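If your schedule permits, I should be very grateful for your opinion on a structural question. Please examine both parts with care and let me know of anything in them that strikes you as inconsistent. The record follows directly beneath this note:
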Amino acid sequence: MSSPDQSPPNVADISSPSAPVPSDSPLPPVFSFARLFEPQYLLVVLSALGVIWVGAHGSLRRPPSAAPPKVKKGEKKREEEKFIEGLVASDAIRFPLLLAAVLMGLYYLIQWLQDPSILNKILRGYMSIMSITGLGALAGDALDVLTSLVFPTMWADGKGQVYHIDSHRRCQYVVDKETAEETVINSKDTPLPGRLSDLTLSPALKRFLWELRHLLTRDWTARLAVYGKTLAKVDFHVNDLLRFAIAGLVAAAYHWTGWDALSNLLSMAMCYFSFLMFSPTSFTIGTMVLASLFIYDVVMVFYTPYMITVAKNIDAPIKLVFTSAKGASMLGLGDIVVPGMLMALALRFDLFQYYQRQIRLEPVELATETASGTSTTTTQNRRVKAPYVDTRGQWGNRFWTTPLGRLSPVRDAAEAISATAFPKPYFYASVVGYAAGMLVTLTVMLVFNHGQPALLYLVPGVTGSLWLTGLVRGEVKDMWNYTEDGSLDTEDVIVVVEVDAEGNIVKESKEKEKGTEKESGKSEDGRVQETAGKDKETERGEEQDAITAGHHELFLFSITAPRAVASMP
């Protein structure tokens, strides 16, 4: 982080989490804590916390303690998102060595070139192209949130009554708490929530709104075929097309203008994308990686000239810079991404614990055969996981089901609570630790009037707050055992547990589950569902029909829009 009493720095360090900038300005005669609340400092702290908060929630995945989400009528089963890479213990050594090699290479390249302008042009062009993916992810998720705000699937009135919006029947209905029966509200025949649902609209406008909602919230399909054979078939949303258009325009505008505001936006997008793609795997590995980068940061800042030289000469969107009449403040992206990955893991751990508390025990009969051919049946208990609620589209539901003056939705908005408003003790503790680390960084920087390696204060703040929270809650063992390497996901096995008279688990074992939904093709309520195999058979049948109908699809590229199944009365 840079000092405010000097001209804005040219660049931040491209390989280090911090971006110190030396200063020859005299030490201020009197330090005042009021300086911490100057605009450039508040913008840096709030921007860093905002990016981490948004990125952590964007990184939410189905935890091992939850069952796969139920597929609603008219929707296709979505493939679960996976992290591209999970860190391993060896990364605690590999990362500092790799970053040191890159930093030293840039340092000697700058010394050889003498004029870093050519290098800056190359790096700006490269980072502009690389940031398109991250900016596309951020823009797409932002558009999804905006769509859910305009067309939510539920909303609550002042009395706490939840109204559900059904796009297939084109109506709004309420559910009786005792009988679970649905009652259609005839006076509300638009897809608009809240008081907007009481507006008197023409039939044509109502039809348009229902069609628009359907087109924005349902999957479109793009298909590429050669000689009647489908080579590629992709499902996407309208927002998926808009996201890349927005990302390309912003990246091009930054490349030609170099505005700080656009640079900050691209930097935030890359941070956001990092949270979506990478996982620390476990608290232990994440803490080890942060500790190693903590040492690397201190050594490179205080004991070598590499970091300061590179930070002064590289100009690329790899930092947040905010200026004001009193000076400038800068924060390297590593100061956001490195601790932010562990904070995102803390949020996913909160979600894991939330669904773990919803696991219920269900009686199950197990039949065993002896060597003599006789069979015996025993009754045990198995753990049944609650289905996972995807966060996509739930932020609008949370907004429309949260009364004024409250922070959480009404009790009957179960989906919005499960996806967005679940308890988050570990995540909030890490946020407090990060904010405390930033305040200490700013204080030391202002006292000594010199840029500081932020990880020197952020790493103890974040890791200390997390492990201290686990110690106070008596869950250090749970933190130690939690991992995202897939070993905790028991989706395909039955975990049989034995309980004592007080309901405490005394023994548990695992049995292979027979007759799963994938094998039987039936859901829990007994209704037959389409499987991937049936979809493939259907596609092959369509391709064969096209050939035998007297024509050949030598080349075909098509985009199919979702078709409304209902019509206005």
